[in-house]
């Protein structure tokens, strides 16, 4: 991952690098130089920040039964739902950016996490309350991002259940029945073995931010514009910086199209 990130940053001129870094890396306390302000000089924060807003969940939106097999898109329904899903978590800073983004905007997201990725434990304290409220859902993407069709039955089960335990420990939830086969590759055997441990719904996608690898932020916004539409299961990744620099643009697209972010649990219930 670090190679890919260097490639991305190396391809951006100096001012771009500065923008990317300052926009996203949390300031460490030891780096901060804090000048005291005269008393009374701070205006109160507005209760609602200006700019694009995430629409709240529509309580009248229809709810469907849990699917009996794989899904690629949401049911055609009213309310303009879009399931924004976020995979992997190889970069802890990007995971944290997503977590803060969700907390600050109310965006309803489904994270398909790999427990072996280092990004999740650091942001668990931000995400856990959002998981408990139902705003954020956690689902299973295998522990170490294996190509499931190449793995034995035992390895498939172990990868899912090791990850299952990580999710349970970090977030206190049972991620079943939703899993996403890494690379979107699975077959009947994989589905059968996964179902034997309760993961009965492979979740694919019909829209993508195309950011599994590093991608130019402008291109990422172009993909968002192409695929952020009603009924879409949108694939994103918490792996590289660009997405964390364009959240306002992505929210603007959602707002302009009256799209309502939903988790899988918002749409499907037992
Ligand atoms: Zn993945």
Automatic annotation (TrEMBL):
**InterPro entries tied to this protein:** Glyco_hydro/deAcase_b/a-brl, NODB_dom, Polysacc_deacetylase_ArnD
Query: What GO CC annotations are associated with the protein?
Result: membrane
Instruction: Report any one BP term from Gene Ontology.
Output: carbohydrate metabolic process
What positions does the domain NodB homology occupy? 80-270
Which Gene Ontology terms cover its molecular function?
Answer: hydrolase activity, acting on carbon-nitrogen (but not peptide) bonds; metal ion binding
Tell whether Hydrolase is among the UniProt keywords.
Answer: yes
User: What SUPFAM superfamilies does the database record attribute to this sequence?
Assistant: Glycoside hydrolase/deacetylase (SSF88713)
Keywords, comma-separated and alphabetical: Hydrolase, Metal-binding
Entries under PANTHER family matching the protein: CHITIN DEACETYLASE 1-RELATED, GLYCOSYL TRANSFERASE-RELATED
Q: What is this protein called?
A: Unannotated protein
Q: What are the leading ranks of the lineage?
A: unclassified sequences, metagenomes, ecological metagenomes
């Amino acid at each position: 991952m670090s190679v890919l990130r260097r490639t991305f940053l190396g391809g951006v001129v100096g001012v771009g690098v500065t923008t990317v870094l300052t926009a996203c890396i949390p300031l460490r306390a030891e780096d901060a130089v804090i000048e005291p302000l005269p008393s009374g000089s701070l205006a109160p924060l507005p209760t609602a920040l200006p700019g694009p807003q995430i629409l709240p969940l529509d309580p009248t939106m229809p709810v469907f039964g849990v699917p009996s097999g794989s899904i690629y898109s949401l049911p055609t329904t009213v309310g303009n739902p879009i399931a924004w899903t976020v995979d992997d978590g190889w970069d802890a800073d990007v995971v944290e950016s997503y977590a803060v983004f969700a907390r600050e905007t109310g965006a309803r997201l489904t994270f398909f996490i790999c427990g072996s990725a280092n990004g999740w434990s650091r942001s668990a304290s931000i995400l856990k309350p959002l998981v408990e409220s139902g705003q954020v859902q956690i689902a299973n993407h295998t522990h170490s991002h294996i190509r499931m069709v190449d793995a034995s039955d035992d390895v498939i089960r172990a990868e899912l259940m090791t990850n299952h335990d990580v999710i349970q420990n970090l977030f206190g939830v049972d991620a079943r029945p939703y899993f996403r086969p890494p690379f979107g590759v699975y077959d009947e055997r994989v589905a059968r073995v996964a179902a034997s441990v309760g993961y009965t719904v492979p979740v694919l996608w019909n829209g993508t931010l195309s950011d599994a690898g590093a991608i130019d932020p402008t291109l990422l916004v172009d993909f968002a514009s192409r695929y952020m539409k009603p009924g879409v299961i949108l694939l994103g990744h918490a792996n590289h910086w660009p997405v964390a620099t364009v959240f306002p643009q992505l929210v603007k697209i959602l707002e302009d199209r009256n799209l309502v972010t939903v988790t899988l649990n918002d749409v499907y219930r037992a």
